[in-house]
Amino acid sequence: MANLTFEIEKDFQFEAAHYFGHADANDLFKKIHGHSFAGTVRIEGDAQEEKGWIRDLWKIEQIIKDVVAPLDHSLLNEVEGLEQPALEQIAKWIFERLEPRLPGLSCVEVRRPSCGERARVRRS
User: Do the beta carbons of residue 38 and residue 13 sit within 8 Å?
Assistant: First the structure.
């Protein structure tokens, strides 16, 4: 049998506001405005022989909730490390906090579904 690598994903959501203060930001986005954010965390690895899974999805959900909690119903610009809260930076912020707690973390995607926008950060 060929070598197989498994991938599992867990979705998350949060509500938050932000604004962009840089000079070339569209005037609309210079004002504080909010979004419903959604995201996906991907973990890759081999299944644990005795359990058949990479990691327990319920435990992954709890770790994600802990990491995302400071973002929920917040002004992202006031969250340390998110002074410029573009989608890419939000994905990176989440990735950096999940990586030490989730071995095999390979990708974090953050979306603004109402805008049809998404950004991903992954390990190179």
Answer: yes
In degrees, rounded to 5, the angle at the alpha carbon of residue 84 between the alpha carbons of residues 72 and 87 is: 60
6-to-1, 59, 67 alpha-carbon distances in Å: 14, 17, 24
Distances (CA, A) of 122 to 96, 98, 113: 10, 12, 20
Residues 4-37 have pLDDT tens digits of: 789 999 999 999 999 987 666 566 666 788 999 9
Q: If you classify domain 6-122 with CATH, what class do you get?
A: alpha beta
Angle between helices 87-98 and 57-68 (to 10 degrees): 120
Q: What is the pTM of this model?
A: 0.91
CB 108 within 8 A of CB 98: yes
